[in-house]
From TrEMBL:
Domain DM2: 126-203
SUPFAM superfamilies on file: DEK C-terminal domain, SWIB/MDM2 domain
Region Disordered, annotated ranges: 208-260
Taxonomic lineage from the root: Eukaryota, Fungi, Dikarya, Ascomycota, Saccharomycotina
Protein name: DM2 domain-containing protein
Amino acid sequence: MAEIPNASETYNPADYQGMVDAILGAADLNTISIKRVKNAISELFNVDLDPHKEEMTEFILSRYYKLVEEREQPRPSQENTEKEDHLMALRLQREEGSRNVRRRVAPSLRLTLTTKVTKRKAPNNAFNAELVLSPLLQEVVGGPRMSRPQVVKQMWVYIRANKLQNPNDKRQIFCDEKLKLVFKKSSVTMFEMNKLLTKHLFKEDELCESHKDREPESEVPDSNQAAETPKPVSDVSSHPDVKTENHKEDLSSEMSDLEG
């Protein structure tokens, strides 16, 4: 058997994005593991990923959560889907023509890859947009505003620091008092956690509209009430003054646990 070459200094996990997406798209997201995806990539491309273990693990996680996000969004119209498929096909064709590192892949796998990837939605830049966190989630991750990937990373920092993973099944998370308030459950899986976090992440305009809907309509006071001093309306629950803490995004320990 041919020796697996070491990854070069020009290694880029995006070179394997198409195949990672294809594997995740065809797998059961409740049972797939990062280790299985990495092993498949290593065998298909005949490459040693060990020198870039953490980087590849984080990349696979980001593609997983993006896939979950896309599946939760409303299905686009047929016309928009066809346009997006056409644009995606053109982009993939350009990338294929300019790729510096070319590796041989079985024709059947290449056909499967092309078929599955072209059906993916166009990248959504809003995926990395900063969101407003609920007060309960802020207590866990330590900040009022973060992007979804940052929230997931800080969740794992908290889970690891408090030893909340099931030692017999690293995919299961035991909920302490703070997590019980967030998830309303005594335990969750790492895949279930992402769906439950959605309830605690809000866009700025969503909060503005919600706040506007709660504001009472102004009324013209009658002569008997003209001299009365209006009572102040206090609404600070949706915008607590919480100081953002800078967490070091070192995921090496928790990523290695996930591969089991």
